[in-house]
Known about the structure:
The protein is α+β, with helices and mostly antiparallel strands. The chain has one domain: AF2212/PG0164-like (Elongation Factor Tu (Ef-tu), domain 3, Beta Barrel), CATH 2.40.30. Helices cover 18% and strands 44% of the residues. The chain is built from 2 helices and 6 strands. It has helices at 29-39, 79-85; strands at residues 6-15, 23-26, 48-55, 58-67, 72-76, 92-98. The radius of gyration is 13 Å and the shape is globular.
Amino acid sequence: MESKIKYEFSAKLWKHGSEGGWYFVSLPQEISKEIRINLQWQEEGWGRMKAQSVIKDVKWKTSVWFDTKKDTYILPVKSEIRSKLSLKEDDLLHVSVLF
């Protein structure tokens, strides 16, 4: 995937309330709005869009999903990444997302 558009922001890591819940970072609503206007055509099922993400010095291929309840895209931060960076719920992270 050749990334052409990069968004950077800071947000807290949060955990979904379900048992065994996933961890996410919510993209700011203004960024999400811009992505939806310009890149929504790239979305696949359930509002999923392929992306790359960078937190600290760790870069990985992932996807973001549009959460209609939050009216923003959410980025899952898988266990492997959280472990590698010693991340915990409520940590404030500087995140880059590339499309």
